[in-house]
Design a protein that fits this description.
single chain, 264 residues, mainly alpha, ABC transporter involved in vitamin B12 uptake, BtuC
Length: 264
């Protein structure tokens, strides 16, 4: 079964959504969309590091994404203005990454795969990396669910319950870094944030509880992955952007359902 490239691609997309559904819900609740972009853009610098040192691309991406996550978390704790800080770090990391890659021989023509993903080229090793990373993130979120949710809803309530909101925020940022490393092969650095935000935003309008929103976001993401691959096969469109297009269509459809429900 895994010898078929379309089956591997579908399993990669579905595996990724195990993590992006619940994690994307927290990104939406905490308004961390720009942070997701910053971490994703830093992934390109990780690609350059990996190519220059002959490390696996996933490992290089993970190292840089974790460094970005920790840096932003520390700066946030020191009271830095997040919009300015994230904007500076995101674009600087992307620019440094693109320039660094240009100095590595033989990868200039493959740059689009790192920017927009190449899910159709997912190997069995990539598949194991994707499912392993996504399962790790999902396990962490399930384990810390009540603490993460309490810290998200009200930091004062979290303190009174003996929960440190800064620690929970750091856990989320580290989980986000892992997802960025996992998702790079599937949708690319420029579209990772879209797969975190759009399915969660689509689920938000119709879900009745936080748990339902997280599960529904994963289902929407999985459906978008399969639908995007089908669109790519049918119309010969880029697979990564096609997945995001399907997620956006699901958002438009469910937004309409939510508006109709609110008006009745």
């Amino acid at each position: 079964m895994l010898d078929d490239f379309l089956m591997r691609a579908a399993l990669a997309g579905i595996g990724l959504t195990l993590a992006t559904g619940p994690l994307g819900s927290f990104v939406v609740w905490r308004r961390m969309a720009y942070f997701g972009d910053a971490t994703a853009h830093a992934a390109i610098l990780g690609v350059a590091l990996a190519l220059a040192t002959d490390l696996p691309v996933g490992l290089g991406t993970l190292v840089v994404a974790l460094a970005m996550a920790v840096t932003v978390s520390v700066l946030a704790g020191k009271g830095w203005a997040m919009d300015t800080t994230l904007g500076t770090l995101a674009h600087a990391a992307l620019a440094f990454g693109l320039v660094a890659i240009s100095f590595v021989h033989g990868v200039r023509t493959d740059l689009s795969a790192y920017l927009f993903g190449d899910i159709l080229a997912v190997s069995k090793t990539d598949l194991a990396f994707i499912w392993g990373g996504a399962s790790l993130v999902l396990g962490i979120i399930v384990w810390r669910w009540s603490r993460l949710l309490t810290a998200t809803l009200n930091e004062d309530l979290a303190f009174s319950a003996g929960i440190d909101p800064r620690r929970e925020r750091l856990i989320l940022t580290l989980a986000l870094a892992v997802v960025v490393a996992v998702a790079l092969k599937v949708v690319g650095a420029l579209l990772i944030a879209a797969m975190l935000i759009i399915p969660a935003a689509a689920a938000r309008g119709v879900a009745r509880s936080p748990e339902a929103m997280a599960v529904l976001a994963s289902i929407i993401g999985a459906a978008a992955s399969v639908g995007g691959l089908a669109l790519s096969l049918w119309q010969d469109t880029p697979a990564g952007p096609s997945i995001v297009v399907c997620a956006a269509l699901a958002f438009a459809l469910l937004a309409g359902v939510g508006l109709r429900r609110a008006s009745t």
